[in-house]
What does this fold into?
Amino acid sequence: MLAAALISLWITRDGSGWDGDSSNYLYTARSYVESGVMLTPDHGGGLVPLRHWPPLYPFMLAALMRLTGDTATAACWLNAIIFPLNILIMAGLAYRLRFSLMTGVIVCLVFTLAPVILAAHVTAMSEALCLTFWLASLFFLLEYQRKETWGLLVAAAVATAATVMCRYLGGVQVIVGIPFIAFYTLGSWRKKLTRAAVYMLFAVGPLLLWLGRSHSSEGTALVDRKVGFYGVSMSQLNLELAAWARWVAPIDGHSWMKTACIVLIVFLGLVCAVRLYRNKGKAEVKTSFSFKNDAASILLLAGLIVNEFVILFVALFADPTMDMSERMHITSFVFILLLVGHWSSRWMLSASTSNGFGKICLQIWIVLVVGVYLVSGLVWIGSARDSHLDGNNSEWHKSEGIALLQRRYATVPIYTNNFSLIYLYTGRIDSRNLTSLLSDSHNASDPQASQNFAEMIKNFTNDPRVIVYFKNYGTQSIPLGKLRQSPALTVIDETDDMVFLSANVK
It folds into this structure.
């Protein structure tokens, strides 16, 4: 755990990694410290009360900022605290699920070295903190199912409430937890339903208070989500499939190498599962594994299925530009990891004692998986600062374009395809989202936005600003090639990483 904290601090010694929403989180935390109100930039040059995200992550940043002096440092230290804490909770879950010693060590090692987990714990985003409370909620629910005390029930509910207040996606745990308490605990139905209701009250109460507060101050918490049927784009589907593939073999390199590794791991895993299951009755150590009497499997499987369903539902009906990459599915990865460890400890390893071929296949599979994750994790750690921290790697720290922006355009109104980097390196919140040029009522999630280029140019020439375009970072919904080719625009400055354009106003 100490090594995890040191790894997090070493990678983020120049600052946390950044995602598109990081600047909003950090600015919200700063505004809360300075004014006592959670305000966030609206990408249109103004400030609005926080309502798009729940408040717990910026609140935690604000609390640490009082000690560290700035939100960027607070984000680094928060991740350094959370990473070892999450490993500790994973170890507690391994103990609670009665993993064998070897299985528990392997699960915790894979959790620590998985690139998706490492990225979450060095980035100024809410996923790592949400994972802390999500894991804690799982632990307390399983403990409650075993002991059925009011203290454990309330602890599970509070942890679930904190999960939801980090990310709205944490509501999955509420959906799963209520029927789990109702159907997988002892006692009369009156007792079960009463305790399920208490769990729901504590788990959902803070969210309802937050939504009520948001509604009273300019709309609802999800006011910018327009309900409709959008479908799932091929790019989103590709990201989804790529995320699942990287969970099997999280390696970078030639496609044939990665494909071969994935095929080998999946094939060996299937061989192990089939042969060991067929021979489990002959095992020296027999088990009584079944889904009916295994509450842990039900809780983890339900969490995995509902989590993926909710993500797909939101992509279909509320947010057609939802990021479907590994970061969005981080809890699904943890569910799968715990399920594999749980099932291995329940019957796979014991069944292997009766079958030499199955045992050999299982040992090869374990060595291969652990080896792949060990190598990929160490490679990721070694290259994280230069290639994985997006807006906060060494290339942007020495960017000629950033220097030009600060020197020549510090007071010029701008449009940009990356608000986060503008805020990170200049502290400016007045830069506007480039896609907002399409129209005053434009919805940035509109999948047709990039096709309305003519309207954008018309609006831009009526309200001229400088366009600051980041070549290799940020949204590419409006391609740089179209901007260069437009007769209404002129390139006024260009560096290796940025292009500055202005309108040809007659």
